[in-house]
Specification:
about 100 residues, mainly alpha
C-alpha cells in the first residue's frame, strides 16, 4: 500500500468515526444516557475526522446550538486544509523507502 493509500484509509476511518460519534452521542442525549465528552468529539475532529463530524452535526442536528461546535469544527477543517496545502507546497523533500 502506498503512503497516499494509507493516508486516505486513515482519513476515511477517522471521518466515519466522527460521523458515527455524533450520531451515537445524539441518540444518547435523547435517551438521557451517558454521553460522549465534548473534548472527545473535538479530538476526533482534530486528528482527521473534521469532515465527518461536521456532516454528523448536520445530519443528526446535534451540537448545532453550541457556538464552539458551529464555529470550531469548520475552523478545524480550514486549519487542516491550510496545513495540508503548506505541506504539499513545502520545498522539503521527504523520502520514504
Amino acid at each position: 500500500m502506498t503512503v497516499y493509500g494509507i493516508i486516505t484509509l486513515y482519513l476515511a476511518v477517522m471521518n466515519l468515526t466522527g460521523f458515527a460519534m455524533m450520531g451515537i452521542d445524539k441518540r444518547k442525549a435523547v435517551k438521557r444516557l451517558w454521553r460522549i465528552p465534548e473534548s472527545t468529539l473535538f479530538v476526533i475532529a482534530i486528528i482527521g475526522g473534521s469532515v465527518g463530524s461536521i456532516i454528523g452535526m448536520r445530519v443528526f442536528r446535534h451540537k448545532t446550538r453550541h457556538w464552539y461546535f458551529v464555529f470550531g469544527m469548520p475552523l478545524i477543517l480550514i486549519l487542516q486544509i491550510l496545513l495540508a496545502y503548506a505541506i504539499a507546497k513545502s520545498p522539503l523533500q521527504i523520502s520514504i523507502m
